[in-house]
Amino acid sequence: MRASAVTIGESVKRIDARGKVTGETLYPGDINIDDQLWMRVKFSERAHARVLAVDASRAEALPGVIRVFTSRDVPVNEYGLVIKDQPVLCGPGGSKIGADVVRCYMDMVATVVAESDAIARRALDLVEVEYEDLPAVFDPEAARAKSAPQLHPDHPGNLVAQYRIRRGDMEAGWAAADVLVEGEYETTWQEHAYLQPEAGLAYIDEEDRVTVLVAGQWTHEDQEQIYHALDLPPEKVRVIYPAIGGAFGGREDMTVQIILALAAQSLRRPVKIQWSREESILYHHKRHPIKVRAKWGATADGRLTAIKAEVIGDAGAYNYTSNKVLGNAHLTVSGPYETPNIHIDTYAVYTNNIPSGAFRGFGAPQALFAAEGQMNRLAAALGMDPLEIRLKNCIREGSIGSVDTPFPAGVSMPQVFEACGRESWWRQSAGGWQLQPPPPPKDGSKRRGRGMAGGFKNVGFSFGFPEHCWAGVELRGEAEIEQVILYHAGAEVGQGAHTALSQMAAEALAVPFDKVRIVASDTATSGSSGSASASRLSFMSGNAIRGAAEIALKKWQDEERPAKGEYMYHPPPTTPFDPDTGRAVPNFAYGYVAEAVEVEVDIETGQVQLLEVVCANDVGKVINPQQLEGQIEGAIVQAQGYALMEYLVSQAGKIKNPLLSTYLIPTALDVPPRVKSVILEEADPIGPWGARGMAEMPFLPLAPAIAAAIYAATGAWVDCQPFTGQRVLAALQAGADVSP
Q: Measured on CA atoms in the order 535, 539, 541, 542, is the torsion positive or negative?
């Protein structure tokens, strides 16, 4: 049996491939039920205001309108993934103090339920809302001022979270430095732009449960927020994920789940909603804009002596995951390097902008943009090779992190940097590593440059957040195992998770892959798996599946038929930052990555073309090589958009370009001509078969690597993302050397 098993390490065909390419697979927006109603949302028309009254009488008088829901209809009018600081519906007379205030344009004021979508749309204009405008603040630094309007009374100074690191002696660190570099780095919002906009369907199932079919990233967390807001017992709410059209962190937080459940429970009829692309861009959260002010010191031979940074993140109107995202930025803003002296202050700040939340990389891309920018500046100031200076300072096995505790075993940063250099344009000699210059372009108005950056990121939840993953395995057959049923709640958001989980089940049970069937993403059939985020799903699920398989096999060997095993995996515990020193055990595992890029810059227009990317990624153990390369290439293209193209325009809290014709993302014609995936398998000591999570890591270093390549090509540093032609041209005109 073992010889014929196709398991981990092979490019098994995705189990959902045929249905998705033929159109047979149904996404939430494709699903309809007899007698269903349609829902539309009345969003806020103010950035900050008190809702004095909501008059739905004209809307409810429209033929075909069934009901208009307002704040008075929500039993517990609050929700939030980490902090329940957001009303489900904003308005007077509800169950929650402060729920009568809208704090941004994406706040919901009412929902209309009608016999058709067209009627619901018409009724929206008939819902009349009376506002009392309140002072608003849109800049996170201004929001910290004593005179700034306070968005949430229990968060003085509009601080969602504040962290600090104090390690070593900064005065001694600066005194030991032969060179100091300072920089200010700024990043902006990014739209997730997943394929399917928000959609869902809610109904009462055969066991009288409020059932919500929706796209998300954690079924059991969606369930918890629904039953909390509706004041229902947990067993009365069921969440099912059909096919999910992408996520990237954009589906971690609630959009339509609670309002659908509220309507279905109240009306006892199925209720459906489908947002437009414009609504999706306007009304779900974005990547955090973050500003970093940094000062680094090093000796003449390139050894770091001190790092100081201030990190300010725009949380928007509600927390979402801002306290966690800025915690991750706090951890990574010193880069993948050791230094004896470090001083970091990080702030997550409420504003009246659209909320910021989870997005691939979770704060590390913004922080590493600054950290790797500083390292590249040090290399230039010292006349050192950028790979050589990194290898001199990077973390390695046994390294003490900025939080004054050792990194978990399995640090592979040196191997990753060396592999990236070796597989790209660096050559090693007795004198060390040396970057080879690119060939000059034929066009006299173009310049070429090469650059490098690297980084690390957590695998799994951080800072003491309870981490867990459940799996169930059922073995069926008589004399031998004829079928394996894998029960798991993990979300298949397009990354191929269900295929990989099935491969791991086959491996754990030593059966052929085609004997495994997965029953997934339904709170009625599985325990909680945690979120499809934090590069954790393969790592956590693999360990849970191994545990469940071991239990099921033991029962099978004891002649129990069918044999069922359930297992809840808990990794080593983590701890939050000490409020004074920052000391912590923040994570139990990490992934490591480095990228080298070649760009071509048009010095007449400032346009930057990404020609080649070499990505070295330590994955611990490859589960499915084809899917792995797809993750790397997809992350690089998404990061390319973040670095070069994607510019969300927000004025006084209102998004001005909510269409994909004006908010530009990469197309197939923008993909770099060459992307080289360099896979390392340095086993993680506690990963399943050594596997590490990796889906976010290739996103992390691309922007700073491109910035370094632009500098190499033109002599201009571009420290504000995205690197649009206008910004690059302005940097060139500021006096950069662009001679041939």
A: positive
pLDDT tens string 639-695: 999 999 999 999 999 999 999 999 999 999 999 999 999 999 999 999 999 999 999
Residues 648, 33: contact at Cβ < 8 Å?
no
List of residues 6+ apart from 662 with CB closer than 8 A: none
Which residue segments constitute the domains of the chain, with CATH numbers given? 2-25+468-569 (3.30.365.10), 31-134+198-274 (3.90.1170.50), 290-462+579-733 (3.30.365.10)
CA dist., res. 508 & res. 506, Å (int): 6
Q: Is 155:100 a contact under the CB 8 Å cutoff?
A: no
User: Where are the strands (E) in 179-289, listed by range?
Assistant: 179-186, 199-204, 210-214, 237-240, 271-274
* Spatial contact of 736 and 625, defined as CB atoms under 8 Å apart: no
pLDDT tens per residue across span 566-619: 999 999 999 999 999 999 999 999 999 999 999 999 999 999 999 999 999 999
DSSP classification of residue 144: T
Name the β-bridge partners of 600.
448, 609
Q: How far apart are CA 414 and CA 234, in angstroms?
A: 48
314 pLDDT above the threshold of 60: yes
Amino acid, single-letter form, for residue 152:
H
Cβ-based neighbours of 433, under 8 Å, separated by 6 or more: 385, 387, 388, 391, 421, 426, 427
For residue 392, what are the CA distances in angstroms to 197, 299, 341, 454?
46, 12, 16, 14
Q: Decide if 627 contacts 605 (C-beta within 8 A).
A: no
